[in-house]
Amino acid sequence: MPKRSPRPAPWRVSWRAIRRAARAPRLPDTIVLWAGPSAFDGSPIMLIGHRVNAPSENGKTGDMLQVSIMRTDRAPIDAWRAGDDGAVCPDPCEHRSRPRGGKGTCYVNKARLSSAWRAAIREIEAGRIGWTPGAFAGVRVRAGMEGDPAAAPIAVWRALLAESRGHTGYTAAWRTLDAAAWAPLFMASVASPADYLRARSKGWRPFAASASNADDRAFEAAGATGCEADREVNPLQCVSCVACNGAARNAARPGRYVRLHGALGAKRRRLNDAIVA
User: Fold this and answer.
1) Which distant-in-sequence residues (6+ apart) come within 8 Å of 20 by Cβ?
2) Alpha-carbon dihedral sign for residues 243, 249, 254, 256
3) Longest dimension (CA), the chain
4) Strand, coil or helix: what is 255?
């Protein structure tokens, strides 16, 4: 049987109707929103929006506009294998590539990003960078489907997310960022209950990838609540939740934790729970 296409989220149906009514031109499926040097190491990177016209197939997030941060000089899978992912993933992220000394547990399937990367390079070669203000009014954005948002300028994120009707985003660079600028938009990506509390004390709403059932309980004791997508009954996709949207709309809201996922991450969690049992 042919694979059934995912159903568009309500925001996408409304967005399409508004664009048709305004007689707005069709956007390309992949858009380069910005290109320039990485704030992490100066390497050439780009901020791209993909799955612009077609619904996202991600079962956890649901149909959100997928925005990624990638190197422009090599595909994500090549950078990952060579340990050159530092341009888009900061050193404090424990899930960074193994050649860089990380655990290699990033949940993103880098190989599946190759087509989006090639499409973005074609846009750059054609001189098409940036977007018309208002083009994404009303969208729901996943900021950082690949890469850490802090690699790109905060001004670009402010412009894009100001148009959205909700977003999610996380940064592992929270220890060195200006919390007053970044924390309103993004969650602090943490790996331990201790870091959860440190991030809280600096004005961030934290988000953790939990590596065991014991960690789940520790994060809850620190004040975190579980990701709605992990609920046993009626799990909620990110597109319907968008609670991981930083601290702007109420900094007192609890942070979140999600069960470590992805091929290697899920395996690590199973092993940790097996050791305890």
Assistant:
1) none
2) positive
3) 60
4) coil
- Number of folded domains that form the chain: 1
Radius of gyration of the chain (CA): 18
Amino acid letter for position 257: Y
The span from the CA of 202 to the CA of 179, in Å, is 7
Q: Residue 157 belongs to what domain range?
A: 10-276
Spatial distance between the Cα atoms of 8 and 129, rounded to a whole number of angstroms: 26
pLDDT digits (tens, 9 = 90+) for 1-25: 455 667 899 999 999 999 999 899 8
Which residues make Cβ contacts (< 8 Å) with residue 145, sequence separation at least 6?
Answer: 50, 66, 67, 68, 108
pTM: 0.91
Decide if 5 is inside a domain.
Answer: no
pLDDT tens digits for range 235-245: 999 999 999 99
